[in-house]
Design goal:
Helix content is 41%, strand content 12%. The protein is an alpha/beta fold. It has one domain: Alpha-Beta Barrel (TIM Barrel), CATH 3.20.20. The strands form two sheets. It has a six-stranded parallel beta sheet. A three-stranded parallel beta sheet has the order 1-2-3. The protein starts with a helix and ends in a 6-residue tail after the last helix.
Length: 287
C-alpha cells in the first residue's frame, strides 16, 4: 500500500484498545509516549486499557498535559475483581470521571479462566459470569445497563464466553445500550462470522484487533473474510498492543492496515473502520 494512502487512513483514526504503562504486566510504552506516537501520525484518539483499574483519570491527565497535540486519550474500566466484579458503582465512578467504555470481565471471567491464567496473572480468584445456571442475565447486569445508559457510554463484552456475549449483546441492544463485541477472533473468545453478522445487524459494533493476526489467533485471510461478511460499517479497528517486546501500537496499526489492504479491503472501508465507526462510538464528529 502506498505511504500516502496509509497516512490518509491514519489521519483522524482511533485505536480503541491499547495497553500502556502503568500496568500490572510488562508493557512497551507509557500513556504519554502512546499519545505522542499517535499524534505523529495525526491520529484522533487512543483508548487506554488496564485490566485491573479505571483509566479515566489517566486519560484526563494525559489530555490536560498534552492538550497541544491532536490526539486525545480515552479511558474506561474493566469489571474484573479489583473493580468489585460486576459492580455498577465502579462503572459509575469511572464514567463520572470521563470514562467512555466499560468492559465486562476479561482476565477474571469464568470462561477465560477455564483456559487457565493469562501471562502476568498474579492472584488466584473465582471466575465471574454474567448469567445464572438457567442462562439468564444476572439482575446486577441490568443495573450496569442503567449506569451505561445514564452516561451514554459503551459496554463491551470483554472475555465472556461466546454464549454469554451473544446473550449480553441482545439484551443490551434491547435496552438501548451501545454494545461492542470484543475481539471475536481471539482464541478464547472466537465467534463465527455468521454470529458476528447477527450481532452487527442488531446494532452491535464489532472490534477487529491486529493482535489476533500478529499472535496467530487467526489468519489475515480469515480476518478479512470476517470483515467482508459483517460489513465495514459495523466494525472498528484496534491493535490490542502494548505488550513488552512487541511492536508499538502505532506500528501495529500500520501493519494491520497494510495486511488488510493486501487481503482486498478497500481504502474507503479501512477509513470507515479506522475513523468513522470509532468516532461514532465515542460520539465524536468527523472533521
Amino acid at each position: 500500500m502506498k505511504q500516502d494512502e496509509v497516512l490518509r487512513i491514519l489521519e483522524g483514526s482511533y485505536d480503541l484498545h491499547v495497553h500502556p504503562i502503568p500496568s500490572h504486566v510488562p508493557r512497551c510504552l507509557d500513556d504519554f509516549e502512546l499519545v505522542e506516537q499517535a499524534a505523529s501520525y495525526q491520529m484522533a484518539g487512543v483508548m487506554i486499557k488496564n485490566h485491573y483499574e479505571s483509566t479515566a483519570t489517566r486519560a484526563a491527565l494525559v489530555n490536560r498535559r498534552m492538550s497541544h497535540l491532536c490526539t486525545r486519550a480515552y479511558g474506561g474500566v474493566v469489571l474484573n475483581w479489583p473493580a468489585g466484579g460486576l459492580n455498577p458503582y465502579a462503572a459509575e465512578s469511572a464514567l463520572k470521571l470521563g470514562a467512555s467504555f466499560v468492559w465486562m470481565p476479561t482476565r477474571d471471567s469464568a470462561h477465560c479462566l477455564k483456559s487457565g491464567d493469562m501471562p502476568g496473572d498474579f492472584f488466584t480468584r473465582p471466575g465471574i459470569s454474567v448469567i445464572d445456571e438457567e442462562g439468564k442475565l444476572l439482575p446486577v447486569v441490568y443495573d450496569i445497563f442503567d449506569v451505561i445508559k445514564k452516561y451514554d457510554a459503551v459496554l463491551a463484552t470483554g472475555h465472556l464466553s461466546p454464549a454469554e456475549s451473544m446473550i449480553l449483546c441482545k439484551a443490551g441492544r434491547k435496552a438501548g445500550i451501545r454494545m461492542v463485541l470484543t475481539h471475536p477472533e481471539w482464541e478464547r473468545t472466537q465467534i463465527d462470522a455468521a454470529s458476528q453478522k447477527e450481532m452487527a445487524d442488531l446494532g452491535v459494533w464489532i472490534e477487529k484487533n491486529w493482535y489476533n493476526i500478529a499472535e496467530g489467533n487467526c489468519s489475515a485471510e480469515q480476518m478479512a473474510a470476517n470483515i467482508k461478511a459483517v460489513g465495514a460499517h459495523s466494525i472498528f479497528l484496534a491493535t490490542d498492543r502494548g505488550q513488552a517486546g512487541k511492536e508499538t501500537p502505532v506500528e501495529g496499526y500500520i501493519r494491520f492496515i497494510n495486511v488488510l489492504h493486501d487481503q482486498g479491503i478497500s481504502t474507503e472501508d479501512l477509513i470507515t473502520m479506522a475513523q468513522k465507526v470509532p468516532a461514532e462510538l465515542l460520539n465524536r464528529s468527523i472533521p
